[in-house]
Amino acid sequence: MINSIQAFAIPVGETLLPTSICDQFKNADTNIGQFLNDSTPNFQFLDDYVEAENTIIKLFEDFAEGIYGYRQDWRITSSWLTSNSEGDMMYRHNHTNCIYSGVVYPFTYSVEHPPLMLENPIPDLSSFGLRVDKPGPLFADYVGKHPIPTGHMIFFPSYLYHYHPSFQKTDIARKSIAFNFFPNEDFGINDSLFYTHENRNKKI
């Protein structure tokens, strides 16, 4: 009998944002470009929704505490609304200058709307050509919930590439709110100590 253990897991968090928080976005201005290069979006979108932003941070801090084993303050460094009304695919990308990223779906969704896909980076680290038609659970990509439930929220390491495929156009836009996290306090020790922006004038 041989046991298989997950020695080096990539943590991805899932939860549901409360309905009372989702309702705060009902009147959000969604008249924006479909892709980030179509317009200049508001990259501090959640600043206008303080209760929602604080709730998201609190939920993420609970998630991060379970990963790292200690409580730490985090902040959302950027957040923005995306709206896809044409059914085009979201291009494959990852996020930089942050440690974790997240996305929440607080709106109403159609069964045509595809879930978020997170690429598993592990197969690219191997010289062995795995079959991709039936990957095992340790090598499979993450596939978000489908159909997308209102309030579904995902946290993932920012280095993970993600995307969603194209879909049949409906009378409902596929809208989401994305955000990035960074610690909101000094972290590290000795020569690896890092001071956050708020404490940039400190000296070692």
Spatial strand order of the main sheet = 1-7-4-9-2
Gyration radius, rounded: 19 Å
Low-confidence stretches: none
- Outline: globular
Q: What structural class is derived from the secondary structure elements?
A: alpha+beta
Largest sheet: 5 strands, antiparallel
How much beta, percentage-wise? Answer: 15-25%
Q: Write down how many β-strands occur, each being a DSSP E stretch of 2 or more residues.
A: 9
Residues in helices, as a percent range: 10-25%
Mean pLDDT over the full residue set: 88
User: How many helices in DSSP terms?
Assistant: 2
Question: How far is the N terminus from the C terminus?
Answer: 53 Å
- The ordered string of helix (H) and strand (E) elements is EHHEEEEEEEE
How would you explain this protein's 3D organization?
With 204 residues, the protein is of the alpha+beta class. Helix content is 11%, strand content 24%. The protein has 2 helices and 9 strands; from the N terminus they run E-H-H-E-E-E-E-E-E-E-E. The strands form 2 sheets. Strands 1-7-4-9-2 form a 5-stranded antiparallel beta sheet, with helices on one face. The radius of gyration is 19 Å and the shape is globular.
Helix and strand arrangement:
Layout: E1 13-16, H1 19-22, H2 50-68, E2 74-84, E3 90-93, E4 100-105, E5 117-118, E6 142-143, E7 152-157, E8 162-164, E9 174-183
Antiparallel strand pairs: 1-7, 2-9, 3-8, 4-7, 4-9, 5-6, 5-8
